[in-house]
Amino acid sequence: LQAQINPHFFYNSLSLINNKAIMIGNQEISEMAQLLSAFYRLSLNNGKNRLSVKQELDLTIAYTQIQLKMHRDSFDFKTDIDTTLYPYEIMNLLIQPFIENAIFHGIDHIEDGRRGVVHLNGYEDDGAIYFEIIDNGAGMSTEQIAAILESQQGQHYGIFNIQQRMNLYYGDKGTIIYQSVLGEGTKITIRLPKIIAK
């Protein structure tokens, strides 16, 4: 997919949209064009498969801000990332798909009127780096989690793909732990080895 997209055309188009929006005083369209540009610039990453934690965080925040606009600010997004993690290297598009799932399969399915909240935490512990994605959404049963982990197609393929990529990059040093309670929410914990970005 990365090879099929002409990034110069894409970025120039978004820049044009941004400039036109500024000219007519439409701040919302300008912000959306800037967020899309930031998200795709980082996610395509000149064809490279790895980013610094800071870049992945910026990508994930841009994606979530786009979703907040699309959801009319109907949920909250909170981050608590230890800045000492910023120089470490991680797989490109590792965190964003879990945020996407937290929104579309978690908080979008809240039925009791609670306001949705997604937390993204990052910290170091015991020689490894950890990321937690926590939502207060619909939650999942043990059977639903198993189905996601085994799904090689359809709406959960992205998570299966991440697991396969993690196995290639990190072997047994990269793990994902799923914890969920129906009607209360889901917590995903990602453990990765410390690799300094080059």
From TrEMBL:
Keywords: Kinase, Transferase, Two-component regulatory system. PROSITE patterns: HIS_KIN. GO terms for cellular component: membrane. GO terms for molecular function: phosphorelay sensor kinase activity. Residues 95-196 form the Histidine kinase domain. Pfam families: HATPase_c, His_kinase. SUPFAM superfamilies: ATPase domain of HSP90 chaperone/DNA topoisomerase II/histidine kinase. It comes from the Bacteria. Gene3D superfamilies: Histidine kinase-like ATPase, C-terminal domain. This is Histidine kinase. It comes from Candidatus Enterococcus avicola.
